[in-house]
Amino acid sequence: MKRRDFLKYMGYGCCGTMMSCSSAPITNRNQVTFFPESVINSQAASAYATFKKKAKLSEDKETLKLIEDIGSKMKIAISTYFSSKKLNDPTKDYNWEYILVDDDKTLNAWCMPGGKIAVYTGILKVTKNVNGLANVMGHEIAHAVAKHSVERASASLALNVGTTVADIFLGGAIGRTRNTVGRTTGVDILQVGIFNPFTRTQETEADYLGLAFCSMTGYDLYEGIELWKRMKEFNKGKEPPQFLSTHPSSENRISQIRSWIPTIRKNFPKIDNI
């Protein structure tokens, strides 16, 4: 039995009651999801509330205000753009929140579904300035806008269901391969061959959308190039080969961003009064 047939048998047929077929905002990349976005957003809000209670939050009110200002501008720009195109605003039900996590060792920022944003103080030594920070936030907000978390949850479900069924028909060969090859070498063949390329597609899409959001809010797109140059220096000697990574390599990222900028400036000009 093929995985597609099994999923249909189990009630996951495309555009059926449990599977949704749609497209990512702006890029129009085809998406297939098993979970309603509202469910993921609700779970994200709960997880964010728990995280806020446990995390050490920074007392740097000036930087937090900067984060809030960037987020507010992008929120308005995104809504204005979709309204102007007479398209559904993917952020219309978002309840935006922002926190600054006091962790100088962690170079990270993220945006949960529903607009729940966290920036770590460690990333500030790479962003350096407001334009660098805006490029990071634009990228993270893009993950939420493009519903990547919904996709990832759905991909995980499909991968687990599909490989389990396949393993049944292959007499446990996949499980044995994982145990004898994947875990022994530290490389899961199924993840390298199926899951990672899908995630890299999301990362590249977030790079593109993040630049679009920065352009619409008037931030310097070329600072995105400088940002990734600095990130490359911080990660010097630590980046895995691209085929083993869920993120594009810094070199590929820099080259891609540089090639996109002229088109993005043309297609996503700064929105007035932001």
Explain how this protein is built.
The protein is mainly α and 274 residues long. The protein has ten helices and five strands, in the order H-E-E-H-H-E-E-E-H-H-H-H-H-H-H. The strands form two sheets. Strands 3-5-4 form a three-stranded mixed β-sheet, with helices on both faces. Strands 1-2 form a two-stranded antiparallel sheet. A hairpin with a 6-residue loop joins strand 1 and strand 2. Helix 5 packs across helix 8 and helix 5 packs across helix 9. The longest helix is centred in the last third of the chain and has 29 residues. The radius of gyration is 20 Å and the shape is globular. The chain starts with a helix and ends in a 7-residue tail after the last helix. The N terminus is likely disordered.
Which key phrases capture this entry?
disordered N terminus; mainly alpha; 274 residues; 10 helices; globular; two-stranded antiparallel sheet
Radius of gyration: 20 Å
Overall mean pLDDT stands at 81
Largest sheet: 3 strands, mixed
Q: Can you give the helix content as a percent range?
A: 55-70%
Distance N terminus to C terminus? 54 Å
Provide the structure class. Answer: mainly alpha
Spatial order of the strands forming the largest sheet? 3-5-4
How many beta-strand segments? 5
Sheet-strand content, in percent, reads: 5-15%
Q: Could you give the order of the helices and strands?
A: HEEHHEEEHHHHHHH
Query: What is the approximate shape?
Result: globular
